[in-house]
Design brief:
The two termini are 47 Å apart. 3% of the residues lie in helices and 51% in strands. The strands form 8 sheets. Strands 14, 15, 22, 23, 24 and 26 form a 6-stranded antiparallel beta sheet that branches. Strands 27, 29, 30, 34, 35 and 37 form a 6-stranded antiparallel beta sheet that branches. Strands 3, 4, 5, 6 and 7 form a 5-stranded antiparallel beta sheet that branches. It is mainly β and 479 residues long. Pfam families: Jacalin, MATH_2. Belongs to the jacalin lectin family. Keywords: Lectin.
Length: 479
């Protein structure tokens, strides 16, 4: 089914971070619809990027190609409307004194992740759009992709405003868990008066729920709640269930409504776009959407909702209430945590106890090196590969920061630095790390610092000693 233009508002997105260099010329991509394909040409760097999108009538649009003509082409598909682009990450690095995008990776809301395009060396970047969608890109281009940034929109600005809430629409195969209303000869439903213009199911009880519920359908819209031109659908609770002695209960419900697509056998799922909980009580026994679906879309045969004058609506609701089974997790963040070092014969401890420098002797002639230390009740490691790890020619030094037992989730913000022996701060090579470590962390997937051996020789003194430094800004603890 094609999304109608009125369903989403793609205009006036917010421009976010730009990563990369300042060479080349500007490019800009703001489609009037969701991005469905990202086409990346890549080799040692990212050569070019282009996109495909679909408009509200289902027509596919292709963008220009932003960058050069080299590289191997890969395509990352995004299956709108069931999924959409949520995050981008990558690296950028220098070539002949200019910064270019070195690698890119994309991830959707459903957790589908592209492979890493290009080579993941250089400065790292990452952006994830929480409670919203990445809707466009911009940047700079030349014979390579010089820079890239994103346009985003939160749900609240993307989905159409109804009289009740903002609605999020998705599709799924599984029917609703609680109520189904099958209507045959739909056109014969009375709509001539306000009272006769609605249908109320009987009340139903559900195992484990001490309440009775029913559906209320307005086939021509609930005019009292700005539902004109739309199907209106509500869930109602039996008011008699709410009375307790001299008081009335309040019931908190996570609520979804459904409309069956008879062609695809999938259910259009409609819920509050911001995940708001609906409250039922003495003064509010009915909750739902006055603009569930436009009558024009509902009656269009190509959309599959009304077939042979028959249709199906549904509701699914989960009561939220405190329980003795609720499990509590405590997250504590330590600012500037103290560090206890090991390998003391090769460590100079700074006076503040927070920044530590390791002296790695005979660096260029060593094999792999490991430095161990404690911070915020966890053991940490610096893994150093003087000739790189999984690099074809062994011409890159790779450095990784890791934590022992990543199954105990931990957040860290730290600075890892290669220090210049001569004290020339402008020559120091450093990277800021800000990420969560857990059991999904791929230990050798993302080096925190990479340097060409031809460059790192400038940081090694006459005796072959290299200085590495770590300063923790924040570490979490979860109990």
């Amino acid at each position: 089914m094609a999304n109608k233009p009125a369903s989403y508002n793609w205009e006036n997105p917010t421009k976010k971070e730009l990563w990369g260099g300042d060479g080349g010329t500007e490019w800009n991509y703001q489609p009037n619809g969701p991005i469905t394909e990202i086409i990346v040409s890549h080799g040692y760097f990212i050569d070019a990027i282009s996109f495909k999108s679909v408009d509200g009538e289902g027509k596919v649009h292709s963008s220009d190609k932003y960058g050069g003509d080299g590289g191997t082409k890969d395509i990352f598909e995004i299956h709108w409307p069931n999924d959409y682009l949520e995050s981008i990450s990558g690296t950028y690095d220098t070539q002949n004194g200019e910064y270019f995008i070195r690698s890119l990776r994309f991830k959707t809301k459903q957790g589908i992740e592209s492979k890493s395009y290009g080579h993941a060396f250089g400065k790292r970047f990452e952006y994830s759009m929480q409670n919203g969608i990445i809707v466009g890109f911009y940047g700079r281009r030349s014979n390579l992709l010089d820079a890239i940034g994103v346009y985003v929109k939160p749900y609240a600005n993307l989905y159409c405003l109804t009289s009740r809430v903002l609605m999020l629409r998705e599709e799924r195969d599984i029917q609703p868990a609680h109520l189904l209303l099958n209507v045959k000869s739909y056109s014969l439903l009375p709509i001539d008066t306000e009272e006769r213009g609605k249908y109320e199911s009987k009340f139903y009880e559900f195992e484990g729920y001490p309440y009775r519920w029913k559906l209320i359908l307005y086939p021509n819209g609930d005019s009292t709640r700005n539902g004109k031109g739309h199907i209106s659908l509500y869930l109602a609770i039996d008011e008699n269930n709410l009375a307790r002695d001299d008081t009335y209960l309040t019931v908190c419900v996570d609520l979804k409504f459904f409309v069956l697509n008879n062609d695809t056998k999938k259910y259009l799922t409609i819920q509050d776009a911001e995940g708001a909980i609906m409250y039922f009580g003495k003064q509010r026994t009915v909750q739902g959407f006055s603009q569930l679906l436009s009558i024009e879309i509902f009656k269009d045969p190509s959309n599959g909702y009304l077939v042979d004058d028959a249709c199906t609506f549904g509701a699914e609701f989960f009561i939220i209430q405190p329980s003795r089974r609720t499990r509590h997790e405590a997250l504590t963040l330590f600012k500037d945590p103290l560090v206890e070092t090991h390998n003391k014969d090769r460590v100079f401890i700074q006076s503040d106890g927070k920044t530590h420098t390791w002296e790695i002797t005979q660096f260029l002639s060593k094999g792999n090196e490991e430095v161990r230390f404690n911070a915020a009740n966890r053991t940490w490691f610096l893994h150093i590969f003087p000739k790189g790890r999984d690099t074809p020619n062994g011409d890159f030094m790779s450095l990784y920061l890791h934590v022992n037992d990543p199954s105990r989730k931990v957040y860290v913000k730290a600075t890892v630095r290669v220090v210049d022996h001569l004290g020339n701060g402008s020559k120091e090579k450093e990277e800021t790390i800000s990420r969560w470590y857990d059991e999904t962390e791929k230990e050798w997937d993302k080096p925190d610092i990479t340097m060409q051996l031809s460059d790192i020789r400038e940081y090694v003194n006459m005796e072959g000693t290299l200085l590495l430094q770590v300063k923790f800004d924040v570490i979490s603890e979860i109990k």
